[in-house]
């Protein structure tokens, strides 16, 4: 059974998603704020996809009118950097109708909780299911508006429903099209399964000297030096402990890399720094030329701060994560959003049991 | 009136101090644990000093016997990295006699408190005055054992007595020979006036990517990039606030640099990063080639942790200082001493008022 999808966001991920879904025979509308993007896609009637997925995906329409995009959609999929979640979330709420799924793809950390708070604040009582992915399905870049290159499609990623009791709706709608998504117990699991929160801010901030000296380097093979890798592994231990506090057995970053990328030369005892040098897909990935990148401006407030919020409620200490948040604020002071604090997530004052009930 | 000085430590600072004091006509003995150093100095009968101070300073003797060095000394001056303070402190306690001054030069942060705790623990009731300097008087390096080059002598540095009521004894003994030392209200002031705590650990740790890539760089002119400088300034704001909490008006790092080094091209509105590029004396100072340097292994546990301890008692928050301590532990985990915690300083459980009474 094909469904109608409103893709909110015509950036790299949104165009890849819209094109791919259309190629799979789904009915797809694309919303973007930029009329240039919308016009380019409208002119050609869809999106050309190259790379790991190939073909021309015809869209129902592209539009700058969110209400039009969302009307009659079964799934409203928000494919935007998390810094835009709140603004776009507010805009889409009035158009939400009973039975719709709002899928945050990805949610960074706690995006679903943040969206739920917007719904409550707006007094919206529509019977909607919020869904969230832990990461983006694709590695992808737009070539020109309407043409995207998909370098890779992840084999395995996570999704969860808020409330968790609506998981079967996500399975039916998302899982039937993309079996790559594994349904998780709840949105705390997808939030804590955020590897970008580990791999983006700390290595970027700890390469500040190179970045500000104008040196080029390869992000993974050169940027994750032994001590930087050791530090990230300690952050990751805090993430794993946070998961445990909520009853989950999480996979470490090192184990993820080993499972995803081992082509025979990796050892389970390799350090993160050593593993990063062995990932073929990472070899050519260059580093940012500034600290003012989404690796910091987005992943600190919308990922690490969200993890701090979950840690606060669970009473888990996260000294390395805290240090990275402070480092970012100290270096870029005044330039970072406050981010996903307990207050911003609408979970301030909850106990761990309260929160687990709230998401279940 | 000339005095008898026992210099404990025959490293760069100890040899410079011993040679300089002897040149000023004082009676000087030098203790070191290394017999090679002691023998070389004994053979030539003293220390040759070159550079900003020049001449041959004849010593009474050099020895590996601490009791011999200390017997009859008016001032026992400990000129050692702070990581050796505890061990050497314990060794010297049994030889301390009524009326002696023990001067920690420098104390890093809270070295005098740490020494006082050793005295109490040892049950030593000799009537001694503990003195402490905030930094080393010299920039200096040993050329060969018995020959030191003094690049520079600081015009202005701080000392304090523990208890503070013994300040006049320091003035008489230390101040009469070295007017460069300004007597401060108490040892909290010298502890908080520790610029190395700001300028050593964070810039070293934040240059980890360069260091571990084997790149050479100049510590001050290249290592203090704009964002690293911004971060250090925020750490320094915490230090200033800590001083305020104890009733002091401290000088910021930037103001110190401006006052010490302005040769007309500095502006009071320059950032720390900009100022560091303008300090002529800093131009040729190369950076460390490893994180395992005293800039981290010493200055984190013996300076930053000590400041954290004072902050804890005063109820002052130090998020940037905390972040640097955590960064060091995360990168070098297991390799750092616990350092000068409240417990190690013998001040755990004190209120701010208690501590101020304790040092006064």
Automatic annotation (TrEMBL), chains A, B:
It holds the Pfam family Octopine_DH. InterPro entries: 6-PGluconate_DH-like_C_sf, 6PGD_dom2, G3P_DH_NAD-dep_N, NAD(P)-bd_dom_sf, Opine/Lysopine_DH, Opine_DH. SUPFAM superfamilies: 6-phosphogluconate dehydrogenase C-terminal domain-like, NAD(P)-binding Rossmann-fold domains. GO terms for molecular function: NAD binding; oxidoreductase activity, acting on the CH-OH group of donors, NAD or NADP as acceptor. Residues 6-102 form the Glycerol-3-phosphate dehydrogenase NAD-dependent N-terminal domain. Residues 184-331 form the Opine dehydrogenase domain. One of its GO terms (biological process) is glycerol-3-phosphate catabolic process. Keywords: Oxidoreductase. This is NAD/NADP octopine/nopaline dehydrogenase. It comes from uncultured spirochete.
């Amino acid at each position: 059974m094909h469904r109608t999808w409103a893709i909110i966001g015509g950036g790299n991920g949104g165009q890849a998603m819209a094109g791919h879904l259309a190629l799979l025979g789904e009915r797809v509308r694309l919303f973007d704020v930029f009329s240039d993007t919308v016009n380019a896609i409208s002119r050609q009637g869809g999106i050309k996809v190259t790379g790991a997925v190939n073909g021309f995906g015809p869209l129902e329409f592209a539009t700058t009118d969110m209400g039009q995009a969302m009307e009659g959609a079964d799934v409203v999929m928000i494919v935007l950097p998390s810094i835009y979640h709140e603004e776009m979330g507010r805009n889409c709420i009035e158009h939400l109708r009973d039975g719709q799924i709002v899928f945050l793809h990805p949610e960074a950390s706690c995006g679903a909780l943040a969206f739920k708070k917007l719904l409550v604040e707006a007094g919206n009582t529509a019977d909607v299911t919020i869904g969230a992915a832990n990461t983006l399905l694709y590695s992808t870049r737009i070539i020109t508006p309407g043409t995207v290159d998909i370098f890779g499609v992840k084999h395995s990623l996570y999704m969860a429903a808020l409330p968790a009791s609506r998981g079967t709706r996500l399975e039916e709608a998302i899982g039937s099209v993309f079996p790559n998504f594994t349904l998780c117990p709840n949105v705390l699991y997808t939030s804590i399964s955020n590897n970008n929160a580990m791999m983006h801010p700390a290595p970027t901030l700890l390469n500040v000297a190179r970045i500000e000296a104008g040196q080029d380097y390869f992000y993974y093979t050169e940027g994750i030096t032994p001590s930087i890798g050791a530090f990230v592994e300690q952050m990751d231990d805090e993430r794993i402990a946070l998961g445990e506090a909520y009853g989950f057995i999480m996979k470490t970053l090192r184990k993820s890399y080993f499972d995803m990328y081992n082509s025979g030369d990796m050892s389970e005892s390799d350090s993160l720094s050593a593993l990063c040098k062995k990932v073929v897909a990472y070899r050519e990935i260059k580093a940012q030329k500034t600290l003012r990148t989404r690796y910091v401006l987005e992943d600190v407030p919308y990922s690490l701060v969200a993890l701090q919020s979950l840690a606060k409620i669970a009473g888990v200490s996260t000294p390395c994560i805290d240090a990275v948040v402070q480092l970012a604020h100290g270096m870029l002071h005044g330039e970072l959003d406050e981010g996903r604090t307990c207050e911003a997530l609408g979970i301030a004052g909850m106990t761990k049991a309260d929160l687990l009930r709230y998401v279940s």
